[in-house]
Amino acid sequence: MKSMLFVFNPRSGKEQIRGYLLEILDIFTKAGYDIHVHVTQRPLDATEVVRKLGEHMDLIVCSGGDGTLNEAITGMMGLKKLPLLGYIPAGSTNDFASSLRIPKKMEKAASDIVEGRACAIDVGTFCSERYFMYIAAFGAFTGVSYLTPQDRKNLLGHQAYMLEAVKSLSDIKPIPMRVEWEDKVLEEEFAFGMVTNTLSVGGFRGLVNQSVALNDGLFEVLLIRMPRTPGDLSNIISYMFLKEEPNEYVYKFKTSSLRITSEKEVDWVLDGEYGGARTEVEIANLREKVKIMLGSE
Asked: Which of 35, 71, 109, 216 could make an SS bond with 47 (beta carbons 3.0 to 4.6 A apart)?
């Protein structure tokens, strides 16, 4: 019999999994899986249980928001042999699931896991000790996700992020940085930056190139320089939220790795969760590192 570790966050996305749990387990059981179920109790719980039990599993399925997925991936990276991955999105935004066209209906996502096909996708490393699936970011708006309380996320959903983002506009501060990739160097004061492997960020598809491939070994990098005038700020906000074309405030490029340094510590966010404060960051792409089960279409 095939073995499965099913890890889920019961609080994600207005606790919607409670209404589908029996149906999901029934789908997995009928597909021939011996299921070990773990309900997360605290931050990093998913990482710990995946590290402990994942070595003996054929398939690891996680359900929750992007943060829960990040924890599961981080746990998998510590295993000698990587099992297949399944994901049932249940968060407020679910950027990565959207990029992979994973169904929002939980029972359909569960069926695709057991009936679909395995697709290899890239994983990002952050300072050789942390991992991310779709985004590593710093600067304006990045604190919105991990500072928004779970209860408010559940109550307002995507609107909660927008409310917090508007509040943070007045707190934008310049971040002097040196960015190095391949044979190029860029030194500038930035307001925001992100390294991504996704089609959607914060529910917005206009921030990244829609021709992104999630298994090409390359990240899409977006850096926005610090506004120098009120007009600059207006143009930057228009670009971020109204999907205008890139302009003189924006740097965009693709790379498989990069190094970012700053004199003062800068807070980073990884897949919507706090990634720590650092003065030096090295990011690299592990091409096609994980195989995730997706629908046949």
From this structure: 71
Backbone φ and ψ for 166, nearest 5 degrees, come out as -60, -40
pTM: 0.83
Q: Is the Cβ–Cβ distance between 140 and 191 less than 8 Å?
A: yes
Tell me the DSSP string of 56-122: G-SEEEEEESHHHHHHHHHHHTT-SSPPEEEEEE-SSS-HHHHHTT--SSHHHHHHHHHHSEEEEEE
> What is the pairing mode between strands 33-39 and 2-8?
parallel
Show the DSSP H helices in 116-229 as ranges: 143-147, 150-156, 158-168
What is residue 256's DSSP assignment?
A: S
* 200 pLDDT more than 60: yes
CB 191 within 8 A of CB 223: no
